[in-house]
Amino acid sequence: MIKKAISLAAVGMLMLSHAYAEDSRWSYRIGATNVAFDASAEVSMNGGRVPGGSADASDNNALTFDFGYVINDSWNARLIVGIPPTTKVTGAGTLPPILLGRIQYAPAVLSVTYNLPQMGGFALTWGRGSTTPEF
Question: Is the pLDDT confidence value at 118 over 80?
Answer without folding.
Answer: no
